[in-house]
Amino acid sequence: MGFRFRKSLNAGPFRLNLGKRGVGYSVGVPGCRVSTSADGRRYLVLSVPGTGISWWKQLRPKSKSPASRNQRGATPQLSAQSGRGVPPVSQRADSDPSSNASKVKARPRIKLK
């Protein structure tokens, strides 16, 4: 059994949560709170006060600009016919006749339903 520690300090709609891993905070009213954990994850918590019934959802981090996303991991272009990721003709191995890759036969693709 692991060691746990948690202490909450309330000041109106604000709550400071002290735990073994660090300090988190939350703001809200009974029944609806937005929380940030000690490691920076954000949550939305909806509850029925006094019953112990609650629902929570982790909120996604704020997204970066589209330009920075494309630099980090560009997505392949989609083929209009198949909807699968297919590189443009200028980058495909079979468009270069001197390439050895054009002599290798591709395996048939199996569709899983």
Describe this structure in words.
The chain has 113 residues and is mainly beta. It has a domain at 6-59. Helices cover 6% and strands 35% of the residues. It has one helix and six strands, in the order E-E-E-E-E-E-H. Strands 1-2-3-4-5-6 form a six-stranded antiparallel β-sheet, with no helix packed on it. A hairpin with a 5-residue loop joins strand 4 (32-36) and strand 5. The longest helix has 7 residues, at 66-72. The chain is elongated, with a radius of gyration of 26 Å. The mean pLDDT is 77.
Number of strand elements: 6
What is the global morphology? elongated
Radius of gyration from CA coordinates: 26 Å
Number of helices: 1
Question: Strand arrangement, largest sheet?
Answer: 1-2-3-4-5-6
Q: Helix- and strand-based class?
A: mainly beta
Largest sheet: 6 strands, antiparallel
Low-confidence stretches: none
C-alpha end-to-end distance: 44 Å
- The whole-number mean of residue pLDDT values reads 77
> What proportion of the residues form beta strands (DSSP E)?
25-35%
Task: Give the fraction of residues assigned to helices.
Answer: under 10%
H/E topology pattern:
EEEEEEH
Topology:
Blueprint: E1 6-11, E2 14-19, E3 22-29, E4 32-36, E5 42-48, E6 53-59, H1 66-72
Antiparallel strand pairs: 1-2, 2-3, 3-4, 4-5, 5-6
Q: Keywords for this structure?
A:
113 residues, mainly beta
Please provide a brief summary of the model:
The protein has 113 residues and is mainly beta. The chain has one helix at residues 66-72; strands spanning 6-11, 14-19, 22-29, 32-36, 42-48, 53-59.
